[in-house]
Amino acid sequence: MRILSGIQPSGTLHLGNYFGMMKPAIELQEKGEAYYFIADYHSMTTLFDPAERRRNSLDVALDFLACGLDPKKAVFFRQSDVPEVCELTWILGTLTPMGLLERCTSYKDKIAKGIPVNFGLFAYPVLMAADILIYDSNIVPVGQDQKQHVEITRDIAIKFNEQYGETFVIPEPQIRGETAKVLGTDGEKMSKSCGNTVEIFGDEKTLRKKVMAIKMDSRTPQELKPDADQNLAIQLMKVVAPADVAKDSEDRLRAGGLGYGDLKKGLFEHYWNYFAAARARRAELAANMDYVHQVLRDGATKARNKAGEVLDRARKASGLALQPEKG
Ligand code: ADP
Ligand code: TRP
Predict the structure, then answer these.
(1) What's the domain count of the chain?
(2) Same domain for 104 and 44?
(3) Is residue 194 part of a domain?
(4) What's the pLDDT tens digit per position in 278-309?
(5) How far is it, in rounded angstroms, from Cα 49 to Cα 101?
(6) Are residues 98 and 222 in the same domain?
(7) Are residues 235 and 158 in the same domain?
(8) Where are the alpha helices (DSSP H) in 179-288?
């Protein structure tokens, strides 16, 4: 079974990315042949600063390796190290109805927000289909927001297989439940575009400040809080602290007597400890960038081999190769 997922190097990774995407992906590396990549081609649709793209790409690589991605188990690479995916994007694009892309919510959202859209943004789901199909992926673990893209991938693959003969594996999305939604410091879904993030790694002072700024109401410590389970700091505590500790804080908050300041101090300590080992590993890796580059190169070699094989199949099936498939 091949599992595939990608993440864009469009900013610093935060707790939402970690609990929503990285942690489940890292756990899945035990369950099959995992292919994980840094979607740098995709990042070009919205990010136009080359230095930032380079920095973010290496940061994502460091973050994943520090958090436990094991390059012996998972193939870890940069999307653009496998340019074959662009050729497949073209081939698939010729079988993709305009209407399918026009219906994409992520594209429509960008238009609604007044973000100037480019061809790359419109073609984004076709590149994503190529990402998935070029590795014969069976399972694609994604958040709810990406479900539509995986469905489009299936539509395109089915259409290709009908037009040119059985070529592609039809992938299944694996949608993570809503429980995976991590809230930001303002109570909305944590997202880099909302300025409400707490990063996984970073400067202690800055991160402490962010945690201490988590939005609370104006009730005094003594007041009873029957809605303690809804408290933002408690909800974050539940993801970074042991269950009994989170429960104890929740009980004390509910009963009155635990002030918000102390609650947030406790939350910060647990969050900081949760990533202590990963932080130390990240510092070691950052001091050994040759190793990180080597991991990405090795991953790219493996990924390219597989991509070449599948692209070859598509070229033969569609008549781009002058020698048709024998038998
Ligand atoms: P952002 O919203 O910060 O721009 P992305 O859209 O780049 O994040 O998301 C990258 C991955 O992290 C996706 O798989 C997405 O589902 C997941 N993710 C992002 N924010 C959260 C969140 N608050 N809770 C759970 N998962 C999240
Ligand atoms: N579009 C995905 C996101 O923004 C990233 C991505 C690109 C991806 N190609 C993929 C995810 C293929 C899964 C499979 O989160």
Answers:
(1) 2
(2) yes
(3) no
(4) 999 999 999 999 999 999 999 999 999 999 99
(5) 26
(6) no
(7) no
(8) 204-212, 232-240, 243-255, 260-274, 276-286
